[in-house]
């Protein structure tokens, strides 16, 4: 009887959070305490002042992801969670790769970089640094193509994602009114009855 090695699956989650001190620490600590493996994490501002988007790639089975989402929903800093496995989305990642050069390999390295539509962002006598943007598969393929020439350094940003089409990740049924103010659509008395604190 042969046994197969279990390969954890990656899951892409976006978390909209309020801009408050130690929000990132609280969320990453939640994953750490429960043994969830974060493969990548990206954070940036959104179109709404006071709200940031965290994009997290979590490694594990489906039950791990569902449990993580349930725990995240309990944090008062969290505005909304988007599980991208439940909808169509577009995602991108960026990487900087510094590749060693010799007179013999310079032309070939440049040709491969051109095939991947990468940009040269730094030129040295014995190395070139490339910027590549694309999905995870493209980034990984570029790194593997450059590996035989000698990779000196790499830095990947981690994945970012948005829902495809015109559907907003902060829909009108959750928020209404002036988008700059990000006013909750739920009436304050309804929030109090449900035990949900005001977001802003």
UniProtKB/TrEMBL annotation:
Molecular function GO terms recorded: acetolactate synthase activity; acetolactate synthase regulator activity
GO cellular component, one term: cytosol
SUPFAM superfamilies, sorted: ACT-like
Ribosomal protein recorded as keyword: no
Record keywords: Amino-acid biosynthesis, Branched-chain amino acid biosynthesis, Transferase
UniProt key word Amino-acid biosynthesis: yes
Pathway(s) this gene product operates in, as recorded in its UniProt entry: Amino-acid biosynthesis; L-valine biosynthesis; L-valine from pyruvate: step 1/4; Amino-acid biosynthesis; L-isoleucine biosynthesis; L-isoleucine from 2-oxobutanoate: step 1/4
One Pfam short name: ACT_AHAS_ss
InterPro entries the record matches: Acetalactate_synth_ssu, Acetolactate_synth/TF_NikR_C, Acetolactate_synth_ssu_C, ACT-like_dom_sf, ACT_dom, AHAS_ACT, AHAS_small-like_ACT
Described function: Catalyzes the conversion of 2 pyruvate molecules into acetolactate in the first common step of the biosynthetic pathway of the branched-amino acids such as leucine, isoleucine, and valine.
Assembly mode: Dimer of large and small chains.
Entry's family note: Belongs to the acetolactate synthase small subunit family.
PANTHER family named in the record: ACETOLACTATE SYNTHASE SMALL SUBUNIT (PTHR30239), ACETOLACTATE SYNTHASE SMALL SUBUNIT 1, CHLOROPLASTIC (PTHR30239:SF0)
Protein name according to UniProt: Acetolactate synthase small subunit
